[in-house]
Structures are given as C-alpha cells and as structure tokens.
Amino acid sequence: MRIRGDHDELAIEGRLDVRTAADARSVLHRAVDHGHGDLVLDLSALDSWDATGLGVLMGTHRRAGRCGRRMVLRGVPAQLQRLLVATKLHRILAIEGYVPDLVADLAQDLAGGLAGELPGPVLPVSAG
Prior knowledge:
By secondary structure, the chain is of the alpha/beta class. Helices cover about 45% and strands about 20% of the residues. The protein is built from four helices and six strands. It has helices at about 20-35, 50-65, 80-85, 100-115, and strands at about 1-5, 10-15, 40, 45-50, 70-75, 95. Strands 1, 2, 3, 4, 5 and 6 form a six-stranded mixed beta sheet that branches. Helix 1 runs parallel beside helix 2 (about 50-65). The termini are far apart.
C-alpha cells in the first residue's frame, strides 16, 4: 500500500487490508488532524480491501466529523461502490461522482426490460 498527497487530498494505492491497516490509519488520522476543509481520498488505484480496510475508512470518516471536516471518496472502484451500497454505507459516506439509488435504477431497468418483452397484461386463467 502507498498513500501519496497532503493533509487535504490523498491517493491510496494498492491494498487496504489487515496487513496495511495500521500504517494507513496513522497516515489518514494525521491528515485529518492537520488539514482543513474536506479530506479527499482518491481510491482509483486501490486494488483490494478487506473488512479491516473498510473499518479504517469508517474510522477516518468519524474522526473527520469530530474535527469539523468531511471525508470525501473519489474514484471509488465499482466493486467497492457495490459493497458500500450493499452495506448501506453509501448513505453515510460522501462519494464523489456516486449515482444515488444505483440499486433502484438497476431494478427499474430490469423490470422495464422484462415488461417490454411481454405482449400485454398477464391474466389469470380459470379452470372450468
């Protein structure tokens, strides 16, 4: 894992997991404590993460809030976006470029596609 940037914008590269969590937590907390305004985390070069890495992001989010700052995620990989939606963390975290209701949009698209294939309303058939 590698973290580059300053106290206001950081890029996290590589893996954010149990092996790198302590170092990442230290760097991110120092950035929160010494910066001003939004703390932007660019995750576009993040290859993988685990629950511990996700915990580091949530801890940084809470710390930023206590310091009067906001943590903003930028360049969130699609797989991580899906995880944030599944865990409903997308409702808590600020995600730059995030399309709200991604799951609802997908469900609507699927329903619309299926409805378009049907010839008309389906009526119950009575035996008799």
